[in-house]
Design brief:
- It is a single chain.
- It is built from 19 helices and no strands.
- By secondary structure, it is an all-alpha fold.
- The chain has one domain (10-478): Growth Hormone, Chain: A.
- It is found in: Cell membrane.
- It is a multi-pass membrane protein.
Amino acid sequence: MNAVSDQVSLREQEPAGRLSVFHGKHTTLWVFLLFGWLISYADRTVTGPVIAWMISEKAGFIGDATNPATLGGLVGSMFFAGYMLTQYAGGRLGDRYGHREMLVLSLLWAGVMTLVSGMAAGLVAFVAARVLTGLGEGTFYSNDRTMIMNHTPSARRTLGLGVVLSGLSVGLTIGILATPYLIDWGGHLGLGGGAWRVPLWVLGVGSLLVALATYVFFTKNGDGRLRLGPPVLRLALYSLPTAVVIVGLFVLADKLSWSDWLTACAVGVLALVVILVVVRDVARSGRAKTLLNGNMWLIYVGFIAVMWNLWFFSFWSVEIVKETAHSSLIAAGLTASFNAGAGIIGFPLGGWIADRRARQGKGRKPLAVTCALVHTILACAFGLSIVGGKPSMLLLGLILFSSGLFFNALQPIIHDITGNLVPASERGSAFGIFNLIAEAGAVASPVVSGVLRDSTGSWAPGVFTAAGVMAVSVVLFACVRERVTSAAG
């Protein structure tokens, strides 16, 4: 594809009346969006350590299951089924009603449903609450990516995407490290087997506070007050039936004694149906040439591997380290946090290097392919390290940190490549389709890995599967025809 210039004014990157209010304040915008990522990822990460505690203590509605790892992975997959299925809807609603509105709505919705999750009395109620939480959080991604690209000077855009995404790593780290301590605190409060509820309550309140602060910022710096009524109604009309279908599948599987992996397959079929409906809708609207061309499909499918690896290591890394190194839950959490913590450096570093290349008139794709390849190699090394018996905690932490640097650097680069391939007015929809398809990896990864663990007695097959999936993405990303931009310094 011929190189094109990206040296355009900020106003040309966003529909009239939206951008000028943030001109010169884009770094402040980054901060608020970073906190949105932080609290959202702490919230969705907490499920893994909570389930690990239930398995360890044989408590709650997971600990006494016949195949607790498989069931725990299935619960995680149910959350991501909800998260996945509002990606496109969230992006389309943002393009229509405003990206500010959808960001605040996502945080409010997630805060309320996380509090409800901590009040659940049984497995089905907990799954329903987590599915609804995922449906609300699913609207954040596409609107966040669009806001940054539309309100950040092109010379700093990939850096902005990376800086904001570092909130993801902070949230992952908090979710992994804080959960055991919050559960212990719940024990000291006399909650006993219900101590797992405390992290959910704390994070629910945190999400509501971030939502309030973001609302105030957008109100003072936007085009007027935020109108949350119309989008929340549309989101509810979409989300509630979707939640009923997902939870209905779970209940039906329980009544008919389906195996957990078969239930996960049913959710996968539901996700495939939604993807097909979205593709049909885009094709009928005449936007297929922009949103569904060969380049975009390479990125959409390639990013499935990124989500697979992200949620394999985020969801199960604590349990993997705990089992293979025979360590305590807290020690395993500290070691596993090296992978999540690496993003604090990797996300902005990848964006900074990519922007430097762009200012030199070079493409970002070679850097993305390199990062994906190195992560694949290091994931294989992690698998080999746990095959031979009791591994060194130091070695596990070092591999997790090193792989995390390259893995996290990759993501803002791919996001910028994606955003540059579509007009500004279609970015919400583009990122919605992007994450709708990519989240298939997040839906499948926890439960597939749990099934592999229960059937083989080892976490190594799950690790090697994650590495193999990532190897495929290296090839797909290498085939993308990037739109090389020349960003003004």
